[in-house]
Amino acid sequence: MDIFDEVKDSIDQFHQELSELDVEERAIEDFRIKYLGKNGIISNYFNKFGQIPNDKKKEFGKLMNSFKNEANQAIESLHQKLNEKQTKQEFFDYTLPGVKPVEGSIHPLSKTMDDIASIFQDMGFSTELGPEIETDYYNFQALNFPENHPARDAQDTFFVDDKVVLRTHTSPIQVRTMEKQKPPIRILAPGRTFRNEAIDASHYCTFHQIEGLYIDEDVTFSELKTTLYLFVKKYFGEDVALRFRPSFFPFTEPSAEVDISCFKCGGIGDDCSLCKGSGWLEILGCGMVDPNVFKSSGIDPEKYTGYAFGMGIERIAMLKYGIDDIRLLYGSDKRFLQQFKQL
Ligand code: PHE
Questions:
Q1: Which of 48, 104, 157, 291 could bridge 301 with an S-S bond, Cβ 3.0-4.6 Å?
Q2: Where are the chain's structural domains?
Q3: Who lines ligand 1 at CB under 6 A?
Q4: Which atom of ligand 1 is nearest to the CA of 193?
Q5: Contact 195, 168 (CB under 8 A)
Q6: Closest protein CA for atom 9 of ligand 1
């Protein structure tokens, strides 16, 4: 094969490689060295110039010069393409407005729990927890609900079996705490509770309570009143009034229910949608710990007295935030939850 054919084959090869080349720095540089480097294909042909017969020298020179020029131009345009590609990749417009990250919000129930708990923590109450699946003993028996007593029916119970229930209130934590701590006891027990009730706008099969318990020598009903008075003023506002209504719970004696003056109508009633015209809102049950509860928990009722209270978190959250259906609190509807972003 004569040298002209060889060069022409090389040019074809060059075109082939050029068309398949990746526009990458390394690949372009290798390609350049292969054809245009000091020992590259093109120099090697130029070195053979002396061997070309004189009458062919002009033709060979022309062919080689055009090969070399084409190779130089190809490399130049490859560098240009690489440049464009890199600027495109690196371009970032720092003046663009940022994308706001999606923010969650605190659930109104968590917020209510936390706010209430922190008021009592400031008054020296520490936190105790108990199991959600509870024995009949702690949920009823030790709390002075005698077997077959009608008071048990008032708490529509989910039974696991004869002796095990889903706790219907947080009061069993009173007994569990009295069993393991010696007075003075001052605890707050938040938690989830369960009742087998027909579900409607104000009833749900599960809800939350916060239980309070204070036991020491000479604890009086007026201390209970003061504690709840301070709590209500702090949580609902200075203008809100309280009233204690006599009530009944098997585990407290005497017992009371606490109402607060309606903060929507200011206690006037009339056609207020929140208090249904009564001017009052019931928020909790309370009383002095019944001596029978002390006895079953190993605390001497002759030496100690104490008070207990329990409130429903859903009810308080609904009152505080104007929520008219308890099911909204369990619906996970983002449109509902996002309204509490600013809490
Ligand atoms: N456990 C009662 C209830 O669920 C509330 C309560 C707690 C009452 C403590 C008195 C003392 O209704």
A1: 291
A2: 3-88, 108-340
A3: 169, 171, 211, 249, 252, 285-287, 308-310
A4: 4
A5: yes
A6: 309
Mean pLDDT within 190-198:
94
Contacts (Cβ under 8 Å, ≥6 apart) of 198: none
For residue 309, what are the β-bridge partners? 212, 286
| pTM of the shown model | 0.72
What spacing in Å lies between the alpha carbon of 309 and ligand 1's midpoint?
A: 6
pLDDT given for residue 266 in this prediction: 83
pLDDT of residue 85: 86
Ligand 1 atom closest to the CA of 213, numbered from 1: 9
**Distance from C-alpha of 209 to C-alpha of 308, rounded to nearest angstrom:** 13
Residue 211 CA to ligand 1 center (angstroms) comes to: 7
User: What pLDDT shows up at residue 231?
Assistant: 97
Nearest to 207 by CA among 261, 166, 165, 151: 166
Residues 6+ apart with CB under 8 A from 200: none
**Alpha helices per DSSP H over 123-220:** 136-139, 172-180
- How many angstroms separate the alpha carbon of residue 107 from the centre of ligand 1? 24
Q: What is the mean pLDDT of the segment spanning 81-91?
A: 85
Q: Which residue's CA is the nearest one to ligand 1's atom 6?
A: 310
Chain segment 27-58, per-residue pLDDT in tens:
999 999 999 999 999 999 889 888 888 898 89
108-340: CATH, from 2.60.120.510, 3.30.930.10, 3.30.70.100, 2.40.30.30: 3.30.930.10
Nearest ligand 1 atom to the CA of 286 is 10
Q: Has residue 1 got a pLDDT over 70?
A: no
Question: Mean pLDDT over residues 271-291, rounded?
Answer: 91
Task: State mean pLDDT over 104-132.
Answer: 95
Distance (angstroms) between ligand 1 centre and the Cα of 250 equals: 9
Average pLDDT over residues 208-216: 98
Q: Which of 156, 165, 171 to mutate to test the pocket of ligand 1 (most atoms within 8 A of CB)?
A: 171
Strands 164-166, 159-161: pairing is antiparallel
For the CA of 168, the nearest atom of ligand 1: 4
